[in-house]
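Batch queue: ligand-bound targets. Current item pairs a single chain with LFPHGCPZ. No template structures supplied; prediction is de novo from sequence plus SMILES. Inputs echoed for audit trail.
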Amino acid sequence: MKSSHARAGWWPGKWRTALMRRIDAWPFRVQIGWLTAVIAGVVVLLALGLGWWALSLGAQRLLAAQERLLRPIVEAALLTPMIERDQATVAEVVRELVRGESIDRVVVLGHDGRVWQEVAAPASPPLPWSSELRIPLTQGSLYFGEVRVRLNAAALADAAGYLVASALAVLGIGVGVAVWLLLGWGRHVGARLARLEQAAQGLARGDFSRRAGGDDLGCDEIGQLGRVFDDMAARIGRTVDQLVVSESRVSAILQSIGDGLVATDAAMRVTYLNPIAQALTGWTEAEALGRPVSEIMRIANALTGQPVDLPIARVLETGHIVGLANHTELIARDGTRRHISDSAAPIRDASGALVGVVMVFHDVSEAYRLRTSLEDNRTRLALALEASGFGLWDLQLTDDSMLLDKRARELLNVDASRTAISRGEWVERMHPEDRMAAQRRFSAHLAGEVPTYEAEFRVADGRGGWRWLGSRGRVTERLADGSPRRVTGTLADVSDRKAAQAQIQYLAFYDVLTGLPNRRLLQDRLHQAEALARRVGERGALIFIDLDRFKNVNDSRGHAVGDQLLQQVAARLGSRLRAADTLARLGGDEFVAIVTELPPALPVAGKHAHEVGESLRQALHAPFDIGGVSYHITASVGIALFPDGNRSADELLSSADAAMYAAKQQGRDRVCFFDPAMQQAATERLQLENDLHDALTRGELELYLQPQVDAQGRTVAAEALMRWRHPTKGLVNPGAFIPLAEETGLIVAMGDWMLQRACAMLRRLDDAGLPIEISVNVSARQLREADFVARLQRILGEEGVFASRLTLEITESMLLTDADQVVARLYALHRTGVKLSIDDFGTGYSSMTYLKQLPLHEIKIDRAFVDGLPDDANDSTITRAILGLARDFGLQVVAEGVETDAQAERLRALGCPRMQGYLFGRPQPAEHYLRQWLGH
Ligand SMILES: Nc1nc2c(ncn2[C@@H]2O[C@H](COP(=O)(O)O[C@H]3[C@@H](O)[C@H](n4cnc5c(=O)[nH]c(N)nc54)O[C@@H]3COP(=O)(O)O)[C@@H](O)[C@H]2O)c(=O)[nH]1
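Prediction returned. Tokens below.
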């Protein structure tokens, strides 16, 4: 401002003095008046000065002209008198000279310097312009004296006087007119300037409607200034209006924005605090205004809790925008801490000078919490990723570069110093056999056909082998047109899983014991072989091999021996087949061979198939050596040829099975071909199995009893026997379904049913006062049930029956498998109070041993020994021996299968205390005997 004022003043720079400044302060009219007076004075003085100078110059020239004129005259007039020393003439001449107006005085000096004559003009006033003319009077070299004449310019002075007087008169009139004009102009200018000033003052006071009235101020500079001023005022008015609108808008924004806003001046004192800032700091704007901002905005590092400086000081220092550091907390007036984020920016005036700082911030506590939690999660994820052994890859499709993390580099066997490989190298590293599939899956994902890229492939493990890697990925970035730009994914070593899968697959399709294909694989191969034979017009044979009495080996020698036998059998059978044929183990002692490429003619194909079947059968004839013990085994072989009409693979298998069954029925160790009758029988067996599943739930099982009598023929006990009243077949004997029930496990539920019904019958007998005991057959499968004893006790308890009234019949063969477990279970049963009976005694292997070891109550002499009585001496001897043995061990004895009086008589004679057989009563429905015993 100072400089602009200086430029506008009259007295620039150093010449400006206090007086000048004072003059500057005078009103324009006064300045004009003074200016006019000074100019007029200067003009008059200059005019006078010039006139005086002109007169002086004229006077000098006049005097010089007089001297030139006078000198010869004086010489001529006075030289002679002087030579003649004629003083009178000299005096006369001198007087004549003085008589002239322009000579004030004449002095004549003799040659000795004495004054001869001196005459002065009377009372002549000294004039400003005069000169003394000295004229020597000489003739040749002779000096006669000197004349001194004092000249003046009186004539000129008079003329000059008139001239000055008239000039002054003209000048005075001119100056007066000029002063009058100047003052008038000054008033005119002053009035217009006053209007300008008033308008400017109005403007300064904020009256933006004030105008100088430029059009009325004329066309000169003041008029132009007025118009410029009016334009400017109008523009300022508009600008101010806009500013007001803008300010109110800004104010509204600042009041309503979600961010806190603090403004300070250059001294870092608060000049503004918006409502959010008030809420966040706890200060009202009125309280905060003028205070140091550091008092209002206290911030600290969230991690250390230590106070930190506001960025405002740095903004003032640098003039740049400064962001808040991360982890910044705002400490409100009441001590509440909130995470804030944002920045401080400089405020500048129109000239660009820094006049303050505005700091905008917002509460990011929630975002901070989320970010912290996100970082935690990311850390956890990284840890989990590390723990999981997953590697990460990130593929930029724009340049096909693939970033790899440390684990991914390890898995791909990439040098640790490299962080990225190309996509081509990634593919190159895959096993050649896996590349195409992996690439296809990748392309499918990029094309959007599958949501995720998933592939498994092998890569070199760096030790000469291959490791299986599983990779999953997904497009994580797309270009504007939606095409994939980036794919991110994981890598994992799935070698173990692959090995496990291979193992599972092996287990799924191969028999673990023999290494042969299992039923599933057999079916698949059979399906293929059948289809192929059909296509090429050949025949094939399905050969079913079932070992005869293998169960006996298993039961008598244990599973370990049985397993070894099966392995050797598998090896022998395999050795008799071609590589193109398949040998499978269905389970247990069942093997199946698929023989292919047989001639199309049925008889010829049959002959070939029979030869193979025979070869297989005979392969087993040589004894097997297991642990130094020789074992002999035979096999029943069934053959079905294919293709056979539309018979499926399953049907072919059941055909071969039926043929094998026929071989069994024909005496075992033989080869049989399938025929439809066999198939019928096999189908029926299958149907029976299905029906048996429903027998219990449909209430088709029935309790039959067969009495046991003492030596006097009195019924003392009865054997409970199961019957199945089949809906279409009628009554089915146990021999037809018990083995099936044992195979399928249904015997467990059926056995429980039998025990429950037998106990219920005992209850009724008790209620009727009939002391008849009941024995129930228990199968090996039932006995192996871990909770069998508990279940039996529960049934006894539910029916309220004394355990001692119940006898459980077990077979010798049960004792040969899992003997320890069975013995323990029998003791547990014994402890419940039930009695234990050995069925079919004498047909087993180690009768003597268990008679000593087991808590037995009774033995039943097998029907096979009773059959031959009374004539067969061996049977008599055996029966007598068994009876003697039982007596020695204190065991009850029941002879079963007694059909004739002779048998009964003989048994009585041998001392058999109890008998059972058709002679005393066939198995009948329990109700039949109950009625009989009750005498109804
Ligand atoms: N686990 C279970 N097994 C049971 C159950 N019910 C029966 N069975 C088993 O079935 C086998 C056959 O029983 P069944 O056809 O009832 O034959 C019994 C009698 O009918 C038959 N018998 C009896 N007396 C004579 C006779 O004078 N001559 C002759 N030919 N047969 C006769 O013997 C069978 C009873 O024998 P046993 O059990 O050895 O005392 C049967 O052997 C049981 O194994 C059951 O509920 N559970």
